[in-house]
Amino acid sequence: MRYFARRLAHAVLLLLGISVFSFALLQLAPGDFFSSLQLNPQISSRTVEALRSQYGLDKPLPVRYGSWLHSVLKGDLGTSFAYNSPVAPLLALRARNTLLLTGTATLLAWLLAIPLGIWSAAHRGEWGDRMGGVMTSTLLTVPDLVLFLALLLLAVRTGWFPTGGMISAEFNDLNFWSKVKDLANHLLLPSLGLALATLPPLVRHIRSAMIEVLDSPFIRAARAHGIAERRVLLRYALPVAANPLISLLGFSIATMLSAGLLVEVILSWPGIGPLLVDAILSKDTYVVVGTVMLSSVFLVAGNLFADMLLFAADPRIRME
Amino acid sequence: MIANLLQVKDLSVSYRGADAKLRQAVAGVSFEIARGEVLGLMGESGCGKTSAALALLGLLSDQQAQISGSVQFRGQELPSMDQCALRALRGAGISMVFQEPEIALNPVMRVGHQVAEVIHAHKRCSWKQCRAEAEAALARVGLPARQRIFSAYPHQLSGGQRQRVVLAQALACEPALVIADEPTASLDARSQSELLTLLRQLKRDSSIAILLISHTPEVQAFLADRLMVMADGRIVEQGPFEQLYRNPSHELTRAMLRTNSLADFARDLDLEMVT
Amino acid sequence: MIPAHSGPHANPSSNPSQPLLRVTGLCKQFVQRRNFSRQQFSVNAFENVTLQLFRGRTLALVGESGAGKSTLARCIALLERPSEGTIALDGTDLLALDTKGLFPIRRRIQLIFQDPASALNPQLTACETIAEPLAIQNVSTKKERHERALQLMDQVGLGPAAAQKRPFEFSGGQRQRLAIARALALEPDVLVLDESLSALDALNRDLILQLLADLQAVRSLAYLYVSHDLRLVSQFADEVVVMYQGRIVEQKKTRELFAHPAHFHTRELLATVHSVESILRERSA
């Protein structure tokens, strides 16, 4: 328990550091949100100044950071200049959408990777394994951007899938099941794309973890006792191979908020990704910092979760 | 005439190296084991003892090695059997006790379950029944239920206990032949002595035949009826143990058995104790 | 080693009757913490160990697994730090030295492990393996180190052809010879052998024993051999120390120990020792 308490304390310090960093980094680029307004000759500079002081942008950086931190601790993440609304509910909504997408994609990716990895390991060297290797290599080398654009092209040309968005225009008029169907319809392409993009390293790791275990003496002993091959794979090899994979799972969870950025932008999924991109470009400070913080919290929590899983799964670690 | 339990003729094993070259580990080995007999196998490390044992059980895949020769168990040819029939035989007809029990046991599975798995693989009974039989198998090798070995993990047990668990796995389905690969190698003197006594008792009570691979003369003296000495993949001498001990015809046999691992004065004392 | 053909040829400059290595009152405790709690409990690996090693003589440390022998061997080889007590080499208290002061002393006590396969770096050739300790202790030039390595290989019975081979290309017996050559590279005075012969088959064991005897005779080495096998020990140890649950329970000359074992544990250990003759006799009875 002390171990975890210490990890938690480190995590908090880390998050603090990240917030300082992202705050400061954003300020490196010249100008602020209202700089573009100044270019407009119809808006007097006095109005701009007034807007600036209204949002407290004329105060020095440490002061702004300090008051931001103060309000964060009270639960208020600041205000978005672009949307003219508090950041927290905006983030919450977008985060929910992102998690829906990445959650589905992660589940899909692991569901595909595990059997593929096990099967490749069991048939190591045979043509099936080699074909699988070629396919994963190809998927790995194709840039995500190209992959998602290809999917978009597919949607546009065939009309089988919606080309963007999360829900149709008539969403609110539909009954419950139709709503679910509509959502699933929109979810299919982006989550498939994301799953395919994250699949190759997973398959590779699972395959190599399994291969390493399958060479162990205790596997040979199990076979010598006449235990069926399928049981040897699933009941003997997989649990022991699971150690590195559990850490990988934690990492998958940890990057759930951030992994979807590219696919969200290309396939117009209303998640955190597009929000962050716009906010960075327009220097909507509090949105950027809030988003970065949320992603960081996910990352840290995910890693901690992975450690706990490992602790529970391997009796040898528990004994130490 | 009682037909031999195991009959091996001209067994050869050649490993396929990474460069597709064949490296011969066993070259034309022939021997028999009768029911209830203990055949000892001695030789330097790397002489092909373990390879021969693995080949017997069909544990070397076609990818790994090229195997030729005849292996007859209870009259059936093993190399020509299909995988399914061979698997049914492993653990129930012929079973193997591996070296180094620390690595022969699954590290994340409780040892009792590991024994139960072997039983479940061969007998059509419920898991509950398998577990009960596993407890019985553990008790037979001197790990009674009150010691609560069943739910322990391998790393929680001592070396001697682990070796007994591996033995319990091998004996769980009452095989006719047990191949024991250096069963006393990683044990201290007392555990060694206990294990050997246990094996002797099993041999007497259940007529189990044993192929005993061990480089220790005292171990062979304790259990073996007959002995074979291997070198470079070949058998250099074969015969009743006492005969080989007193009148070895090959240099290597003499070297392996006559190694004076006990000093003169100790041997004299020892003999005094016995007579 | 047991006399007959090898007597202690002591280094003329040192007094053979004085102990080379003197261990007094050595204790080692391991502190463990239970899961999830702050409660600590300490485990005694061994306590109150006092023994002496002499040049040209072999002391055997015998006991069951868990008796603390290996931990003691590692402490004497300076790989672990004992909790209490002193280790004196030629009068110098080794535990009072700091890391820097200890560095030149380390070459004088070397350890040979049970399993040569795991003690040898699989990536280094035989020659490099032996030259490595020389390089660490900054001995002479690379060329000279190479020559020394070849000399040592010759002394342990490995021909020059083996110089470029890697550990996995050797047999068990050859690997142990390589480990011995490496240990000898720095010309130590004390060799600690932790069950170094038990992984070998009978034939190789005899050959290595002969090698060790020869080396001891020529270089006046002191051996500390740790084993659970009294049978093996009877052949080459001058003196035997029996350990039981972390304590020394008996310490005698080998012949004495076999003839008149005093402690019950010694008798237990002896009871498991039988010669092939006695076993055969018992079987035919």
Shape verdict of chain B: globular
- Mean pLDDT of chain C equals 83
N-to-C span of chain C: 36 Å
Which residues of chain C sit in consecutive blocks of at least 5 with pLDDT less than 50? 1-13
Fourth CATH level, the homologous superfamily of the largest domain in chain B: P-loop containing nucleotide triphosphate hydrolases
Q: Please count the beta strands of chain C (DSSP E, at least 2 residues each).
A: 10
What does this structure look like?
The complex is a heterotrimer of chains A (320), B (275) and C (285). With 320 residues, chain A is mostly helical. Chain A has helices at residues 2-28, 35-39, 45-54, 61-73, 87-122, 127-141, 144-158, 176-214, 217-224, 229-254, 256-259, 261-266, 272-282, 285-313, 315-319, and strands spanning 79-80, 85-86. In chain A, strands 1-2 form a two-stranded antiparallel ribbon. The mean pLDDT of chain A is 84. By secondary structure, chain B is an alpha/beta fold. Chain B has 11 helices and 10 strands. In chain B, helix 4 crosses helix 5 (127-140) and helix 5 (127-140) packs across helix 6. The two termini of chain B are 37 Å apart. Chain C is of the alpha/beta class. Chain C folds into 2 domains: 18-108 and 189-199 and 218-279, 3-Layer(aba) Sandwich (Rossmann fold), CATH 3.40.50.300; 115-187, no CATH class. Chain C has helices at 69-76, 99-106, 116-119, 126-136, 142-155, 172-184, 202-219, 230-236, 254-259, 264-271, 276-284; strands spanning 21-33, 40-53, 58-62, 84-89, 92-93, 109-112, 190-194, 222-227, 239-244, 247-253. In chain C, strand 4 (84-89) and strand 5 (92-93) form a beta hairpin. Chains in contact: A-B, A-C, B-C. The interface between B and C is large, with 41 and 41 residues.
